[in-house]
Model the fold of this input.
Amino acid sequence: MKRLTSRSGTSWDTVWGVGSPEETLETDFGAKAPFRSLHKTEAFIDPLYPDETKRLTAYTDASGVRVVMGEVSNGVWAVGIRRD
Done:
């Protein structure tokens, strides 16, 4: 788990390189399905490839907690939960 700050200045606890984003959000962060899209994205500098920026889609979980998830390469996802 890595604490990252998105380009918008928001702090997130993130996990990069997962295969099942919803399951990771539930098991690693305690987020609860269903996840509802906010129709927004958060931009992050990729921790493995700092020359690349990745956009993760923002959602809220069933209790209103803000989370992000996005496919960062074929079949590989990054997820996170807001911490500020």
In short: The mean pLDDT is 96. The first strand starts at residue 2 and ends at 5. Strands lie at 2-5, 11-18, 36-45, 53-60, 66-73, 76-82.
